[in-house]
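Many introductory courses stop at the sequence. We go one step further.
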Amino acid sequence: MTASEIAAYLLGKCALLEHFDAYMFGSTLHGVGQDIDILIVGPGGDLLAQLKKEIDCAGKACRFTSSTCSHQKSVTPSL
């Protein structure tokens, strides 16, 4: 997957990303290597914990595993 495809995939799978600023960097973005890192900036607490679970689930689904993810649930942020 390209960096653009990964970004689109995560935005589609991780609804809570809308409450955070996400920055991608790594060698893949420069056309060298296969390393992509994502920096997430935003609130901590329960909202961040849920986002981590969403990202974990998205990663497992992306690897085409047969496991289903029970972490993706609707969360109303308390801002």
